Amino acid sequence: MARAAVQRRLSWQVATVDEFVDETPRVKTIVLEVPDWPGHRAGQHLDVRLTAEDGYRAEREYSIASAPGEPVAITVERLEDGEVSPYLTEELRPGDGLELRGPIGGYFVWDADGGGPLLLVAGGSGVVPLRAMIRHRQRSGSDTPVRLLYSSRTLADVIYRAELDGVGDGVEVVHTLTREQPPDWTGHARRVDRELLEEVAWPPGEGSIAFVCGPTSFVEVVAKGLVELGYPPERVKTERFGATGR
Amino acid sequence: MEPLDGNAIGGLLHELFGAEMTTATGVCAGCGAVAQVAETVVYVQAPGTVVRCRSCTSVLMVVVERRGVRCVDLLGLVSLEEAKVAPGS
Predict the structure, then answer these.
(1) CA–CA distance, A64 with A202 (Å, rounded to integer)
(2) pLDDT score, position A6
(3) Which residue of B has its CA nearest to A237?
């Protein structure tokens, strides 16, 4: 399937919005019905295109939040100064059309037979493609051990919180809250640094693969830290997204 | 705005080359570094898309759109080869 997807022509098509799931006050998951969808791999993204009445177009990439085999879904964080995300999270309604193309990408992907153990490191909405990987692992019956280190500003900003609390066997989730912590918080309370990585990461070697997704500055710190811990650079897969203007 | 990486232009490159290109391997004309497109440094803010080498910061690729026509400059690359088999498969 993967090879067929590689050769496939990438065309814009109109999907239909099926439903919305509130993840946090600023983040929603949009479940879509895509008529011509060849199937995707965990970690891939899609491009969304909005066209204004005067013909002005804006395009954005969104990671696919669902596992292969599940309905296509994206998770969108509303950025106050954004051109696209306020429309997607505030204006769009179930039944509306949404122009998109995908699936896109072959580098930041994990297949159930792709090896591991997996170290997943997320900054903010960088958790979205990593959530697709975790769901893919569960759905495919894989026993690959997974650790997710997930950095959020506050507890209220944690996306997929209930789902991650219940992932269960073989998946450990370690949170760090960088800006504000509840009074009874026992988790980490600082930005991801080398010490935190050393504490959470699988030992390098033994097949460990790291996937790191978040804002550019976050990804740089984490990727550098993992290489310093002995991870071969080719086993640290990175995906950076813009923190503003999205 | 901070730069992104080659994952961000997967759709654009698929449109231009007709294939998945984030796993394609490029060789930098400036320093000879070999990297997958996903690993490059990408500036997506107008007036165009600029792709730079993560090792030496040389410009590898520029894509500009003008009146609906895409101009692609690959002079910073010695070679750009599509991945034969998807990684992990």
Answers:
(1) 26
(2) 47
(3) B39
Q: Cβ of A239 and B20 within 8 Å?
A: no
Contact A61 B8 (CB under 8 A): yes
Cα end-to-end span (Å), chain B: 36
DSSP string over B3-49: -EEGGGGHHHHHHHHSS--TT-EEEETTT--EEEGGGSEEE-STTEE
Q: Where are the alpha helices (DSSP H) in chain A?
A: 2-7, 85-86, 127-140, 161-165, 194-200, 216-228
ipTM given for this complex: 0.91
B4–A240 CB contact, under 8 Å: yes
What is the DSSP code (8-state) at residue A193? -
CA distance B54 to chain A (A): 12
What's the residue count for chain A?
246
The tens digit of pLDDT for each residue in A74-97 reads: 999 999 989 999 999 999 999 999
> Cβ-count burial of B37 within 10 angstroms (0-12 exposed, 13-18 middle, 19+ buried)?
buried
Q: How far from the centroid of its chain's Cα atoms is residue A44's Cα?
A: 9
Query: Are A180 and A156 spatial neighbours (Cβ–Cβ below 8 Å)?
Result: no
d(CA A49, CA A59): 4
Among chain B residues, CA nearest to A240 = B4
On whether any CB of chain B is under 8 Å from the CB of A245, the answer is yes
d(CA B61, CA A222): 27
The A residues from 26 to 65 touching B (CB cutoff 8 Å) are 45-47, 59, 61
pLDDT band of residue B89 (cuts 50, 70, 90) is very low
Cβ neighbours of residue B79 under 8 Å, at least 6 residues apart? B25, B26, B27
* A30-68 per-position pLDDT tens digit: 999 999 999 999 999 999 999 999 999 999 999 999 999
A137 contacts A145 by C-beta, under 8 angstroms: no
Listed residue (B23, B27, B59, B26) closest to B41, CA to CA: B59
The amino acid present at A116, given as its one-letter code, is: G
